[in-house]
Design a protein that fits this description.
heterotrimer; A mainly alpha; B mainly alpha; C alpha/beta; A: mainly alpha; ABC transporter involved in vitamin B12 uptake, BtuC; 76% helix; B: mainly alpha; two-stranded antiparallel sheet; 13 helices; globular
Chain lengths: 437, 336, 234
């Protein structure tokens, strides 16, 4: 078994750093970093089960997280009633037709016993016709819907359900997509799979950016409902006012701290839940088999293990976890902004978390998520401080000094690069290496 | 006449932009392919290498402009390109020495080196933003057009104009030149052949006395050159923003894979396939139909297969289709 | 007196000795074969003699010179050629380019050697602009041997030259090997097809479990009852 003390020390260091931020910067900042640390940790758990335990390279984090975000919109926003009347049904039926035709062509592909060229012709004809049919059905309703109060709605809206439901639904949405992607791409070898998943996640983001009828595209969906109370409500509550007086902190600040703490509470529950489930799964024969497949595909295959099926399972599970984290993130933000999904911030940063923490170890992924997110946020002040320190003897009017100070924010990318490179070089197993079970 | 107008329309909106963008993608994809075949990893940092090269060109352009050195109607960037190339090569070599060399000697799995290249991508991206800032930089100077739409209309008497931007002309000509040089090098010179031999069979290349360090050096020289030229041309044609270059890496990968990874000819074909499909699929055909068909039977709507917003997504869709149908690519390459 | 010899060599991977105290060699202008069952250490012996694998004990001599500490490339320069069992060509290079790569470190006489090899293997002249990877198994083997001959080595080492080719092609290959030897190049080879190999060999070494059991002329090994029963299938 792993050295428990060591893990405890790492986590204590992390919390100490957060406490320092609380004392020296602000408790609000410390808590918002903490909340995002938890979300990052969940995302890296998702990647870790895929990469660390099955050797699958999934660069589609961005897309799955965005699908989780979309779940927020679909679940929690009120429906735009006239949009449904004006042709929501038509759009859905158009899309369903298209999807059915794709399934038909897949079915035909498997059943038809003719030579490949003819198959290609037939399938492409079916797909092209149904695509244009779909466009014919949906083009006009889309225009109508998007013109309904475009400044406020202009989309179909959601089901007006409590937002917390969107977390499992986000996971489900991601899992369904992962199933489709897995069916397509899991046969590819590592480099190809990385590029393919990155490409597919870009396609997902493009759809979310441009299909305004679905989630308002780049106009964003603002004002998503919250699972926790609003600051304004809290400020009128007697107990909040008492705490504010007792701690001698301003009322707005204490209310926002309480809101953040409630989020932290919810997030921690989810994190621990996922962690326990993963630990159980990985200790089970199923987990052992996954690692056996990772370590030697050929012999696992020879022993009659169905590698493709296992890979698909693990790909779906990991992606669903990312979807849940994505949904939580959007809930925390209170808005759905498709433009914010960048491969750098999502895919690659999460990968750094997993590598730094230690691929194959869930605790490693969590600590990786915490550390990397902490530095991602704090790199800017650290960079500023560093440059100010180095150039402290240079006069304030110096052009180079000013240029450096101005661009210090970009030090974070360099920091991340250096951290990743140093880890890979000198501690390729990460902070908490994989346990041999 | 209507027919000629239709052709001009296609030439102006598809063929010339397609050739330009295709050239830029092809140069980028060549860089990725060469790294992949010789050093055996997918280099995600290639976009940042392109960005680095462009940044160097921009800084040198500013320097030269301040000194009052110009290249007449051509952009100053072309004049400074050789120096920028040298600096980019130097950067690539430094990165190789401190980062990639270790993993090569360790004989690491290609996926590990891929993750390493992501570290390089982060570092380079940060360095570039640190030096030049994240903002938009336009460094084009000189004459804007080789052929203006107005001149073309006056010359031919057609309704539709055909414009060729200087950057487009420069891009296409430089690409042809560079590709020609590269193929001459790879196929006709002893060093080029030894490079291909090394990428084919490392062990045997060692037995034959081919010096691996020299092959690696030349690989980075070629990659640096291609990255710097591709990046500068793209920046001249569109505009330079560090952020865009990160996103450029995926269409470039798409081009390399679509053409057939590991095959230089494939990389070039892939670049043009991606560029032209983007344009063909997102082009609004309405106007062309007006020229070619009787007015009454042209349907309503823009007659686009996909909306222009999906332009870049097209490259990913093609990538996914190719991976599905023929993972070795159009021009048979090595499977990663 | 051997032209090339590994004397009393002991070597192996990690801590296990694959080969212990073997002496193997070939004389000028002769053919020598190493035969023996699978896992006897035949290929290991070849690698050790060519310097692809470090040896723990013993010495390697070429033409009386101690070459134990030389790198494989340096041994090529001293006049050794090696054809590995697998991956022995550059598949995407043309046949001619493959041969040119063989002469990479020794550019002189390239033209002459090319002509010599095309005379030895006429089929390669016809296919010289074709990609080597597109050729048949036997033709690839010819390219591989041709590549190694480009430096006009004093001794050519072949690791299973007949692996994976049909019996007819194999016969052709053995014929060519004899021809090469007759031109004055000594040949040291490892062979699975022990009978055929010993038939053309001047000297044979029978290896089993890393030990050199018999060293004799090819003919007397073929006549040796014990060898026949144990290793040549009766």
């Amino acid at each position: 078994m792993q050295n428990k003390n060591y893990i405890l020390q790492l986590f204590s260091c992390m919390f100490l750093m957060l406490l320092l931020v609380g004392f020296f910067q602000s408790w609000n900042l410390a808590l918002s970093i903490f909340n995002l640390c938890i979300i990052s940790a969940i995302m890296s758990l998702g990647i870790n089960i895929q990469w660390g335990n099955a050797g699958i390279v999934n660069f589609g984090v961005m897309g799955f997280a965005a699908l989780g975000g979309l779940a927020n919109v679909i679940i929690s926003m009120p429906p735009t009633l006239n949009a449904w009347e004006e042709g929501g049904i038509l759009i859905l039926s158009g899309i369903v037709t298209f999807i059915i035709s794709i399934f038909c062509s897949i079915y035909l592909w498997k059943k038809l016993n003719i030579d490949k060229k003819k198959k290609y012709v037939i399938t492409s004809i079916i797909i092209a016709t149904s695509y244009f049919l779909m466009r014919y059905i949906i083009d006009i309703p889309i225009l109508t819907i998007e013109s309904i109060e475009p400044a406020k709605t202009g989309y179909l809206g959601g089901f007006d359900l409590p937002v917390i439901i969107s977390w499992p639904i986000g996971g489900l949405l991601a899992a369904l997509t992962a199933y489709a992607i897995g069916k397509i791409a899991l046969g590819l070898r590592s480099d190809y799979l990385a590029i393919a998943t990155l490409g597919i996640s870009e396609i997902i983001i493009y759809v979310l950016k441009n299909e305004d009828w679905l989630s308002r595209g780049v106009k964003n969906v603002n004002g998503l409902p919250r699972p926790v109370p609003y600051e304004i409500e809290l400020q009128s509550k007697q107990w909040v006012i008492e705490i504010a007086q007792f701690t001698n902190v301003s009322l707005p600040e204490i209310s926002s701290i309480i809101v953040k703490l409630s989020y932290s509470f919810l997030f921690i529950i989810i994190l621990i839940g996922i962690l326990i489930l993963l630990e159980i799964a990985l200790k089970s024969p199923w987990g052992r088999m996954m690692r056996a497949i990772r370590d030697n595909e050929v012999s696992a295959n020879a022993m009659g293990k169905n590698i493709k099926k296992r890979h698909l399972q693990v790909f779906i599970i990991g992606s669903a976890i990312i979807g849940i984290a994505g949904a939580m993130l959007t809930t925390l933000d209170g808005q759905f902004t498709p433009v914010s999904y960048q491969p750098l911030r999502f895919t690659f940063l999460v990968w750094i978390m997993v590598i730094i923490g230690g691929s194959g170890n869930n605790f490693g992924s969590i600590i990786g998520g915490f550390i990397i997110w902490f530095f991602w946020i704090q790199a800017e002040p650290i960079g500023l401080w560093l440059i100010a320190f180095i150039t402290s003897y240079v006069s304030d009017s110096n052009l180079i000094k000013n240029h450096l100070l101005e661009n210090a924010a970009h030090m974070r990318l360099m920091f991340m690069g250096i951290i990743l490179l140093v880890t890979l070089r000198f501690a390729p197993k990460g902070l908490i290496p994989e346990v041999k079970r | 006449m209507d027919f000629l107008n239709g052709i001009t329309l296609i030439a102006n909106y598809i063929i010339i932009p397609g050739l330009t963008y295709g050239s830029q993608l092809a140069l980028g994809a060549l860089g990725i392919t060469i790294i992949y075949t010789v050093l055996r990893f997918s280099n995600f940092a290639h976009g940042e290498f392109m960005s680095f090269g462009t940044m160097t060109s921009i800084l040198l352009t500013w320097l030269f402009s301040n000194l009052g050195i110009k290249l007449g109607i051509f952009p100053t960037a072309i004049l400074v390109l050789p120096i920028a190339i040298l600096i980019t090569i130097f950067y690539c070599l430094i990165i190789d020495k401190f980062v990639f060399k270790f993993y090569r000697q360790q004989k690491s799995k290609s996926v590990i080196t891929l993750i390493v290249s992501i570290g390089v991508m982060f570092f380079s991206g940060g360095l570039i933003r640190f030096i030049i800032g994240p903002g938009d930089k336009n460094f084009f100077d000189g004459e804007r057009f080789i052929l203006k739409a107005k001149t073309f209309k006056a010359l031919t008497g057609l309704n539709e104009g055909l414009a060729i931007k200087t950057t487009q002309g420069v891009t296409i000509i430089l690409t042809i030149l560079l590709v020609f040089l590269l193929f001459w090098f790879l196929n006709k010179t002893k060093t080029g052949k030894s490079m291909r031999a090394y990428s084919d069979n490392q062990e045997l290349a060692l037995l034959s006395g081919i010096n691996p360090e020299k092959v690696v050096l030349i690989t980075w020289i070629i990659t640096g050159t291609l990255a710097c030229v591709a990046g500068t041309l793209y920046g001249l044609d569109k505009s330079y923003k560090p952020f865009t270059y990160l996103h450029l890496v995926l269409p470039i990968f798409a081009a390399a894979i679509v053409g057939g990874v590991g095959n230089p000819v494939g990389a070039i074909i892939g670049g043009f396939v991606i560029a032209f499909s983007e344009l063909f699929i997102t082009f609004a055909y309405k106007k062309i139909f007006y020229y070619l068909l009787p007015y009454e039977i042209v349907p309503n709507g823009l007659l686009q297969i996909l909306s222009t917003d999906y332009k870049i997504a097209v490259s990913f869709i093609i990538l996914v289709l190719v991976l599905l149908i023929k993972p070795t690519g159009i021009y048979k390459g090595k499977v990663i | 007196m051997y032209l090339l010899s590994g004397e009393n060599i002991t070597c192996g991977y990690s801590s296990i000795d694959i080969l212990s105290n073997c002496t193997i060699g070939v004389k000028r202008g002769q053919i020598a074969s190493i035969v023996g069952p699978n896992g006897a250490g035949k290929s290991t012996a070849m690698k050790a003699i060519f310097g692809l694998l470090g040896i723990r004990k013993g010495k390697i001599f070429l033409d009386g010179e101690d070459i134990t500490n030389l790198q494989p490339q340096e041994r090529v320069l001293k006049g050794m050629g090696f054809v590995p069992q697998t991956n022995n060509i550059f598949p995407s290079l043309s046949v001619q380019e493959n041969l040119e790569m063989g002469a990479f470190i020794q550019a002189k006489n390239c033209e002459n050697m090319l002509n010599y090899i095309y005379e030895l293997f006429p089929i390669l002249r016809d296919k010289r602009y074709q990609q080597a990877g597109e050729l048949s198994g036997g033709q690839r083997q010819q390219v591989a041997v041709g590549r190694a001959l480009m430096t006009s080595p004093k001794v050519l080492m072949l690791d299973e030259p007949s692996a994976g080719v049909s019996p007819i092609v194999m016969e052709g290959i053995f014929k060519k090997i004899k021809e090469i030897a007759n031109q004055g190049t000594a040949i040291l080879m490892v062979e699975q097809n022990a009978k055929q190999a010993l038939t053309i060999s001047d000297l044979g070494f029978v290896l089993n479990q890393g030990k050199n059991l018999f060293t004799d002329t090819g003919k007397s090994l073929l006549d040796n009852k014990e060898v026949r029963q144990a290793f040549l299938g009766g």
